[in-house]
Description:
Blueprint: E1 5-6, H1 9-14, E2 28-30, H2 35-48, E3 52-55, E4 71-74, E5 81-85, E6 90-94, H3 99-108, E7 111-112, H4 125-131, H5 138-141, E8 148-154, E9 160-164, H6 176-179, H7 182-185, E10 194-201, E11 203-204, E12 208-216, H8 219-231, E13 237-244, H9 245-254, E14 266-274, H10 281-289, E15 299-302, H11 304-326, E16 332-337, H12 347-361, E17 367-371, E18 376-385, H13 386-405, H14 424-427, H15 430-443
Parallel strand pairs: 2-4, 3-4
Antiparallel strand pairs: 1-2, 5-6, 6-10, 7-11, 8-9, 8-10, 12-14, 12-15, 13-14, 13-17, 16-18, 17-18
Helix pairs in contact: 9-11, 12-13
Flavin-adenine dinucleotide binds at residues 18-19, 53-61, 64-65, 75, 95, 117-119, 123-124, 126-128, 130-131, 133-135, 189-190, 194-195, 318, 322, 413-414, 450, 453.
Amino acid sequence: xxRTVTTDEDVRRAFASDASGxxxxxxxxxxxxxxxxxxxxxxEAAASGTPITAAGGQTSTTAASITDTGLLLSxxxxxxxxxIDPVARTARVEAGVLLGEFxxxxxxxxxxxxxxxxxxxxxxxxxxxxCNASGARTLRYxxxxxxxxxxxxxLATGELVEVRRPGLEKNTAxxxxxxxxxxxxxxxxxxxxxxxxxxxxxLPSPARVVGLAIPFRDEGAALGFVVAxxxxxxVLPRCIEYFDGLALDIARAARAETAWAPAAAGMxxxxxxxxxxxxxxxxxxxxxxxxxxxxxxVLVFDGDSALRDARRMRHAVPAHMNERGAxxxxxxxRKLSTDWAVPFRKLADTIAxxxxxxxxxxIPMPVIYGHAGSGHPHQNFIAEDTxxxxxxxxxxxxxxxxxxxxxxxxxxxxxIGKVKRRWLPLQASAQQLAVMRAVKRELDPQGILAPxxxx
Length: 455
Ligand SMILES: Cc1cc2nc3c(=O)[nH]c(=O)nc-3n(C[C@H](O)[C@H](O)[C@H](O)COP(=O)(O)OP(=O)(O)OC[C@H]3O[C@@H](n4cnc5c(N)ncnc54)[C@H](O)[C@@H]3O)c2cc1C
């Protein structure tokens, strides 16, 4: 057994849960502190055919970072920021570096690594890469994938490889899916290789950011405004987030602003980032007024401290719902969160249909909030016991079928993991699934990496 592996019961239990609400106790836990140790561990696992599941911050909502078979490989010990080059605007980091800490360090140098999952304080760079994490600002900057330029990866054989984006503007050599090996690993949820190190592309921090919280009397007006904000040419939002009435109540309570915008049944939060110019506040207010916003109650968040306040307000919603869901674990209940997305113009109709399905099933309305500008809301349901969880899952599946019928995806952000695996075949064709299996077989012929995730 490798020196970094333990089978101690307490340690195994400490790595047995993530944000999915499920518990899977691994047979052993390995806590390497270097890429060399990861390679040794994978070689040993390959020789004995032992399954090996990588884990970072274990914030997965889909049980992707837990396992009850073989080794749980925690990458948290690989936590060095190797290099930050402010001139080339690149950074080289180990997989276990925490995203939030890394971003604060960059900010001190006037640099930005844009991916901003709500969970970023607990997320590792390796986990963000493995899940292609995204967030509110993905609207403007794209998800993690586009910011990764090279990876060091331990393959399932234990071979350590460095893959780098070709950096070409044109390329017709061979199939697209084989042209850039970085893309094999980004979003592969630990199933194709173990990321030990990453080279990331950085942006300059914007000189000025202003946020606006815009209240609306009804959902239709708010979602109409979202589409208009996407299409407007005189504003350039880096995020467009929607909060329905229930989410707004939680956000208001988090700011101790329960009296704010009493007539509002929804809110849209937008952010503009500029290189120093004044953000187009008048254009935003005009757009809001044109969509029946409650213009007198618009809140402006200008400056770091105000923006932190806005962030706290928005992030209070998932945090509150996680706490509520955790109360029902003993009874087989939990928070159930969707992360489907549709083309943004179809969001209002899809939310209306999702609400109809909930109402027909007679279960409580979920809290709906999130990345409306990308057509990507979260529905947060609270299931109080096993029976209500099953009823909720049936409603979610019916919603997903509708989402797919209008050209959407069953997962825009949190990945498939183990929890959503049964929904992948609703979206991917038999040929697409076969291609995924072929890639998996090629890169992990023994099937030892993160068994049970994705396919
Ligand atoms: C409150 C809350 C809010 C969230 N908000 C968002 C959000 O806004 N956007 C978003 O995208 N996600 C969000 N998530 C989901 C989650 O935080 C992300 O998927 C995140 O990227 C997972 O990172 P992690 O370090 O916690 O990885 P883990 O949960 O530990 O692992 C996730 C997956 O990555 C694999 N993995 C981890 N490290 C490596 C590695 N080094 N090499 C290969 N595979 C690896 C694991 O095997 C697993 O499949 C949220 C979760 C919570 C609990």
